[in-house]
Amino acid sequence: MIVSDDLFIPMRKDNLNSEAIVRPQLTFWQGAWQRLKGNKLALMGLVIIIVLGVMATIGPMISGHEYSKQSIIMKNKAPSGTYWFGTDDFGRDVFTRVWYGARISLFVGFMAALIDFFIGVLYGGIAGYMGGRVDNIMMRFVDILYGLPYLLVVILLMVVMGPGLGTIIIALSATGWIGMARTVRGQVLQMKNSEYVLAAKTMGAKPFYIIRKHLLPNTIGIIIVYVTLSVPSAIFGEAFLSFLGLGVQAPMASWGVMANDGLSTILSGHWWRLFFPAFFISLTMLAFNVLGDGLRDAFDPKARR
Amino acid sequence: MLSFVFRRFISMIVTLWLIITVTFFLMHAVPGSPFEKEGKALNETVAQNLNAYYNLDKPLFVQYGLYLQKLVQFDLGPSTANSADTVNKMIARGFPVSFQLGLIAVLFAIISGVGLGVIAALRHNRLIDYAAMIIAVLGISIPSFVVAPLLIKYLAVEWKLLPTATWGSWQHVVMPALALAFGPIAIIARLTRTNMLEVLTQEYIETAKAKGLKPATIVIKHALRNAILPVVTLLGALIANVLTGSFVIEKIFAIPGMGKYFVAGIINRDYSVIMGTTVFYSALLIFLMFVVDVLYGIIDPRIKLHRKESEG
User: Is residue B278 part of a domain?
Assistant: First the structure.
C-alpha cells in the first residue's frame, strides 16, 4: 500500500464550525410560548379570558344601568335595545348584573387560586425538600384532608364564619391548596434525587440556590397549569355555595347567585335570566380548562398526546 | 395483605375521629345560641330547659365526651331546629333516596365514561375521537346546575318525555342521574382514553395480536384491565363529587333526599343536622376509599399494598 502525501492534507478550516449552534436558542419561556402559540384551542381560551376580564371591568359601566337599581314596571323584560340581556324579576338590568357578577366570580376564582398557590407551593416545597420524617408527618395530614368531601368542609366553614365574599375565599382556599401541595411535593421529591441536583450539591451550591435555580424552574410549569385549573374550580365552588344560599348576599350578585335566582324561569319562560349567567359560567370554565390543557402541553412537550 | 388492611383500617378510624373532633369544635365555635332566631330572645326558663335538653349547659369537653359516647352507639343526636326529629331519622328517610340516585349516577358515569374513552382510543384521531373529546371538555366545563335546567326545559317541559321533578318511578331518576353523571363521565372518558392509548402501544398487545386473538378479547381482557386502574384510583373522589353534587341536584329536582335535609339544616342553622350529615358522609366516604384501596390490590396483583411513595 502506497502512502502518498495527499492523504495528509490538513482538514479544511470551515469544517470546524460544525459544532456551532446556528438556530436561535430558546429560553424555557420562549419555548413554552412557541408551543402554546401553535395550539389554537388554548389561544382561544386565553383570548376569551382576556375579553371576560375586560368586560368585567368596563361592562357594568357601559350599559347605563345600575346593577342594584330596581324597577317594578320594568320587571322580566326580554332582551331589547335598552336592556341588552333583558331584566330580572326586580327589574334590574341583567347585562349590568352579569358583568358585575363576573367581577365577583373572577375575583373569587383568582384570589382563591392565588392563596392556593402560596400555601400549596410553600407546604409542598418544604415537605418535598426536607423529606424523611417531616415529609411523612406533613403528608399524613394532607392525606387526611384529601380524603374528605371538600365541599362539605367548605360548607361547614361557611356556616361557622357566616356568608360573605371574604369567607367564601377563605373557605375555598382552606381546602384548595391540598392538591397543589401534593403536586409540588411529588415533583420536588422526584427532582431532589436527580443527578444534576447532586452535581450542584457536589460543587457546593447552597440549598436556597438549588431551590431557586434548579427546583423552582423545573416545577413552575406544573404550578402554572395547576393555578390555571384551580381558578375554574373556585368559580364552580362559589356558584355551588350560592346555590345552597351560602353565597354573596343581595344586592351583590355573582353568576352562581344569578343562575340560582333564574332557576324558576324554566317554567315561566324568562329564559334570559338563567341563560346568560349559566352561559358565562360555562364559557369561563371552558376557557380556563382548555388554556390549562394547552399550558400543560406547552410546558411538558414530552407528555403530549 | 392482612396487615395492610389492618393498618389501613386503623388510619381510617383515626381520620374519622379527627373529622368528628374538628367538626364538633367548629360548630361550637359559632357565636350565640342555636335557639335565638333573628333577635327574638327566649324566655329564661325555656332557654334553660332547651340548653339542658341538648346538654348545652355543660362544659364543652363534657359535651364532646357525651357526643362521642352517643356516636359510638351510632346516635347523631336530636335536631336543634325541631326537637321531635333526630338526625338518625332524617338519614333513615333521606339517605336511601340519595343513595339510589348516587349509585345510578356513578354506575352510569363509569359505564358510559369508560365506554366513550375506549371507543375514542380505538378510533384515535378520527371523527368519533374528536366528538368524544368535545363531550369530555363540555362535561368538565358545564356545571351540573346548568345541565339540570336544560334537561328539564327540553326533556320535560318541551317534549314531555319525563316528569319535571320529585321522586317515585324510574322516570324520575333519569334526569337527575344524567345531570349528576355528566361531569364524572367527562373525567372518566378522558382518563380512560389517555391510558388506553398508552396501553395499546405496548408490546404485549402486539403479542396478543400475533397470537391471533379476537380484537374484542384483546381490548377487554388485555388492554382495558390495565387501562382502567387509574379510574379505580379516582373512584373515591368521584363518589365524593356525586354525593355533594347531589345536594344541588336534589334541590333543583325537589327530590326528598339527604340534600334536602342538609340544605334545610343550613338555612335553619340546625347545627346538629349539619354536624351529623358531615360526620355521616365523611364516614361513608372514608369507608368507601378503604374499600377502593383493597379492591385495587385485587384488580392489580402487582401493586404492593404499602403506601405508594411515588404517587405524589
Answer: no
- What backbone torsions phi and psi does residue A136 show, to the nearest 5 degrees? -60, -50
> Domain locations in chain A?
32-55+95-304
Q: Helix B144-151 to helix B170-200 angle, to the nearest 10 degrees?
A: 130
State which residue of chain B sits closest to A245, comparing Cα positions: B267
Mutate to test the interface with B, among A145, A160, A183, A191 (most CBs of B within 10 A): A160
* pLDDT tens per residue across span B109-157: 999 999 999 988 888 888 888 888 888 888 888 888 888 888 887 777 7
B-chain CB neighbours of A229 within 8 Å are none
Contacts of A266 (CB under 8 A, 6+ apart): A274, B149, B152, B153, B157
B116 and B238 share one domain: yes
**3-class secondary-structure state, position A13:** helix
User: Which tens digit of pLDDT belongs to each residue from B172-201?
Assistant: 777 888 888 888 888 898 888 888 888 888
Domain that holds residue B41: 2-72
- Look up the CATH number of domain A32-55+95-304: 1.10.3720.10
Task: Report ipTM for this prediction.
Answer: 0.75
Residue B203 Cα distances to B48, B124, B132, angstroms: 75, 18, 26
Task: Kindly report whether the global pTM for this prediction surpasses the value 0.90.
Answer: no
Instruction: Name chain A contacts of B152, Cβ cutoff 8 Å.
Output: 266
Residue B198 lies in a domain: yes
Rg over alpha carbons for chain A, rounded to the nearest Å, is 27
Nearest residue to A287 via CA among A35, A41, A40, A33: A41
Residue B291 is assigned to a structural domain of this protein: no
Facing B243 at nearest CB: one of A149, A285, A286: A149
